[in-house]
Each structure stands twice: as structure tokens, then as C-alpha cells.
Amino acid sequence: MANVTVIGAQWGDEGKGKIVDWLAERADAVIRFQGGHNAGHTLVIGEKVFKLSLLPSGIVRGTFSVIGNGVVLDPWALRDEVAKLRGQGVEITPDNLAVADNCPLILPFHRDLDALREDASGQGKIGTTRRGIGPAYEDKVGRRAIRVCDLAHLDALDPQLDRLCAHHDALRAGFGEPPIDRAALLAELAEIAPFVLEFAQPVWKRLGEIRRAGARMLFEGAQGVLLDVDHGTYPFVTSSNTVTGTASGGSGLGPQASGFVLGIVKAYTTRVGSGPFPTELQDEVGQRLGERGHEFGTVTGRQRRCGWFDATLVRQACAVAGVTGIALTKLDVLDGFAKLKICTGYRLNGKVLDYFPAHAGDQASVQPIYEEMDGWHESTAGARSWVDLPAQAIKYIKRVEELIQCPVALVSTSPEREDTILVRDPFAD
After folding, report:
1. Ordered alpha helix ranges (H), 142-292
2. 202 C-beta neighbours (distance < 10 Å), count
């Protein structure tokens, strides 16, 4: 058995959708194991463009797809996304989609709280998607979440609602908001329950059976390592662990199931929202990267901040996530630059650092140390083998490998899934 775990090794938006789609066609199951509908994957298949938030990318190919217990699930967002994909001709049934019955729910008051906090935070704004992800995870660890399995027992929900309301009504009062309308909430849950329960099952059991059968599993991460709640640029992070180890706890399988860990890495660096970004370019070069790379968030539509490749950050991400090999994406965006820069370390208070410090103030104060390389004038767009690449592009890739201390397994040269240079097959035993 050869399983693969795909994670983002920067701040998300690295082009995971295409790579996961490319791998999903050869997998027997694709599993989402963390995050919520704040994630965004864009798949380009022929003339069709599919934009996914909650559903695993494998669903478009008809591969058995799982939303694991590590995900926080907005049931209304799931319903809308399923309806949208069905409208694009994608078949979605309980035969090819399973939702963990112990998955916690994102509820309307989570979205309210997310927005209220963000609006009141002033300079402390994190830049959340306001979709209720963080508050839902808080309720999960606070042991007051309503889960998918609770939808089948709404008549026994009062004790859980007591815990929820004791917490949230006090918060809402602080923002001048009325208490949770329990009757309205129960009515909303009763309305959505039949749809969600159609897909609900103990996915840990189903995945165990798939694993024992020797089938291939693909674990699909959301966001990126630099947004990990422990290892990312805290507090400007997401509310879950995005590193490889979460695939185990977020799916109900043991740590041995992760297999080959493929870190998706953009050939330059981007970030959406607030937070430190050492190599950010607020000039015509950064604008050129954004325009050529079509750098807008799949979920939010927000313009991404752009900068040079930061090898120090990627090296650290690969180390803490146990990356086996990387997929280098959007190489073609760098076509035509006379000079390229790579960040190899930082200066902070007169010291040279070969890592990204943990403190937010230090993260905001580091100055990048750059190494400059010649660029290339030829086009790499659509290249499918090394011989199709300019010599200087190959030199750039090799230097990235050296600096991040991790080999390149794939190179992506356009949004088309076939425009991929395979160096090492992640599914190979």
C-alpha cells in the first residue's frame, strides 16, 4: 500500500487543487482531515473550472471522498456546494461521499461571533474569512460542540444547548447581541439534518476497511504549514493544525497511514490577509507576480500579497511537517524576469537567523537575506519534461532543493493537470 498526504508548505494557496486532482484519479479514497469551508481548491478539468471549499477534490473524479472528524462542518455550506457541483454534472451520492459522524458543526452563531470579534479587534485583526471556523473549533475543545451524530438525536439536545448557551449568550451580551434563539436553531438543524445524515457514517471504520484491502488513500490538507495554529505565524494563523500529523487524528487512522508526504510549494511566495511576510514586494515586481499568477483567493476573492521565494520558511515548514518531497508549482509565473531572488535567511537585531522566530514582533522585524540568480527569457508554460525547461529554470529548481533540504518530486508549469513534470511518483511503493 502506498498512501500520500498532501499539505501546503507555505501560507496556503500553493496550487494544491491541481496536484490533488492529478493524484486523486489514481487513489481509491481522498480524505479531508482539518479546516473548514475557509479552504479553497480550484480544479481545471478540460473546459470546466470547479471551485471547492469543503468537498475533497476527489469527488470531481468520482473517487470515494471523505470529510473527516478533524474538519469543522458548516452543513448549509455543504448543501450549497453539493448543489453547485451537481449543477456542473458531478454525481454526489452516499456511495462516493462520506461525512464523519463525529464531525463538529459550524452553526450560525459561530459566524456571528467570528465577524463581531474581527470587527472589534482594531489593529489586532487576524484577517479571518468570517465563516465561523475558529469559534467552532473553540466549542469542540470546550466540549460543547454539536456534532453530526447529534442531528439524529435533536430531541435529546437540551443538555448540550445549555452548555453552548451558557458560553455564547455571555459573549453575545458583551457585543450587545441578543441570546441564541434555541427554538430557531433547533428548527434550522431539523431542516438540514436529513441532508447531512444521508452521508454520515463512522468513517474511521470505513477507512480501516479500505486500508486493510490495500487500497491507495490520499489525505488532502487545507491551508498551509505557516498557518498551523502551533507552527505558523501566530496569531495570524488558522484554527487547526495543518501539519501532516493531523491526518491521523483528523481521519481516525494511525500515524503510519500518512505515507509519502507531498508538500506543495509555489515558486515564489504569497499570503492572503494579515500577518508577517518577510519577502513581500510592494512594488511593480510584486504586482507583476500577482497579475501573472492570478493571485486571488478561491474562497474570498481577496488579492494575495506576493513576494520572492522564501527558502528559510519552506525549509522550516518541510521540517516540522515531515515532508518527503515537494511539488513546485507556478514555475511559469517567473518566466521573463531578468533577475530572481531567493531568501536564504534573516537579520534580526544584528544577528543572522537560519529559521523563522516564534515571536510575532520578531517575525515582523526580520529582514530577508537574499541570494540573486539570473532568470530566463524562454517560456516554461506547459512543460512536461526536464528537456522542455530552460537551463536557468532547472538551475533555479536545483537551488531551491538545496536551500530547503528537500527534493522536488513534481514541477507544475500551468493550471492544466497534464502540464506536470514527474520526478518521483508519490504513490510508488
Report:
1. 158-174, 182-197, 203-212, 246-249, 284-292
2. 15
Percent of the chain whose predicted confidence (pLDDT) is above 90: 82
Distance of alpha carbon 279 from the chain centroid: 21
In contact, 345 and 353? CB cutoff 8 Å: yes
Give me the pLDDT at residue 34, please. 96
Residue 52 near residue 88 (C-beta atoms within 8 A):
no
Nearest CA to 281 among 368, 366, 361? 368
Average pLDDT score over residue span 381-401:
96
- Contact yes or no for 85/60 (Cβ under 8 A): yes
Section 322-335 average pLDDT: 96
- The residue behind cell 504569497 is 270
At 375, the amino acid letter reads: G
Pairing of strands 408-412, 325-329: parallel
Q: pLDDT band for position 83 (50/70/90)?
A: very high
Asked if residues 9 and 318 have their Cβ atoms less than 8 Å apart, the reply is: yes
Of 37, 41, 110, 168, which one is the catalytic site residue? 41
CB neighbour list of residue 143: distance below 8 Å, 6 or more residues apart: 163
Going 350 to 356 to 359 to 365, the CA torsion angle's sign is positive
SS3 of residue 103 by DSSP: coil
Residue 373 pairs in a beta bridge with 340
Cα–Cα distance measured from residue 179 to residue 192, given in angstroms and rounded to the nearest whole number: 22
Annotation marks residue 41 as catalytic: yes
Is 80 exceeded by the pLDDT of residue 377?
yes
In whole numbers, what is the pLDDT of the chain averaged over residues?
Answer: 93
With a cut of 60, say whether residue 345 has pLDDT above it: yes
Cell numbers that stand for 245 in this block: 500529523
Sign for the pseudo-dihedral over CA of 163, 169, 170, 175: positive
What string of DSSP letters covers 20-44?
HHHHHTT-SEEEE-SB-TT--EEEE
SS3 of 177, please? coil
Residues in the chain: 429
Q: What CA–CA distance (Å, rounded) separates 88 from 348?
A: 51
- Give the contacts of 281 (CB within 8 A, at least 6 positions apart): 289, 306, 307, 308
Give CA–CA dist 155/145, Å, rounded: 16
Q: In whole angstroms, what is the distance from residue 5 CA to residue 323 CA?
A: 9
Distance CA 410, CA 19 (A): 9
The dihedrals phi and psi of 333, each to the nearest 5 degrees, come to -65, -25
Place of cell 470587527: 119
Cα gap 242→221, rounded to integer Å = 7
